[in-house]
Amino acid sequence: MDPFLSIEELAREFDTPNLTDWKLFSQNSSLSCYRRTHQKLIYYKFFHHLPDISPDVLHNVVLDVEYRVVWDKYLKEGRKISDGDKNGIYWLMSMPLFMSNRDYTFVQEQGEYDIGDRHFYYASTHCEEFKNELPRKKIIRIENCQSQTIICTDGAKGSKTVVLYSEDPRGSFPKAAWSWAAKFGIPLYAKLTHNACKTYPQWIKDKNIIVPNVIEDDADSAAAETAAAAAAAASAIISPEDSVVDNDDSHNEQEQDQE
């Protein structure tokens, strides 16, 4: 895995983002996502602005595993796990477009930092093996994945977020999957997160509250002013020579699906 950026390096991304070698992958009025690849790894960098969500609420939503299962329509299973003195989280993600589901075992760290005159909320994750969470049949276990999330105020009532994410997906992703992610998946996920943040204070008091769902049509409507640009960006990024992400484990998806 790549070394994590320091908190100071992450904080500088708000003011002077480093986009060298990054390509725009998806964008709407509140979120920009950039992507690059290197060997087996796919890297993403997100910039997200939620003008009506405070940094502390967003930070709590990011860390709350129980709540994540409630609002994240792609998370089939999420729970805290342990292995001796090591504590972590298990995730089982539902994948679109007839692709094999993926699962993860990872550890999470979080903290709060003051840099200059700004207060930052921070969270990081990276995959680690948990001996009592064995790989499952027909599910691809992701073994190389990490993320860093940093959140601060937008200077008013909202929050700004930078997320760095990298993963070896252990399989082949068809062109249609990237097109779906750029046009629908990422805008949809941004709206899911927004809805989850708005509902979180009420959910803490009453866990029977229903979080508003989002469908692809909603996400497309919310990003209507930039849907064409996002599709064009995806088309440019998904060139014929890079339309499928392969690695040495690409046969695993087919074999596990047949078990």
Record keyword descriptors for this entry.
259 residues, alpha+beta, Alpha-D-Glucose-1,6-Bisphosphate, Chain A, domain 4, ten-stranded mixed beta sheet, globular, disordered C terminus, START_lipid_transfer, lipid transport
Describe this structure in words.
The relative contact order is 0.20. Strands 1, 2, 3, 4, 5, 6, 7, 8, 9 and 10 form a 10-stranded mixed sheet that branches. The chain has a single domain, classed as START domain (Alpha-D-Glucose-1,6-Bisphosphate, Chain A, domain 4), CATH 3.30.530. By secondary structure, it is of the alpha+beta class. A hairpin with a 7-residue loop joins strand 5 and strand 6. Helices cover 32% and strands 33% of the residues. Helix 4 crosses helix 5 and helix 4 packs across helix 6. It is built from 7 helices and 10 strands. GO terms for molecular function: phosphatidylcholine binding; phosphatidylcholine transporter activity. It is found in: Cytoplasm.
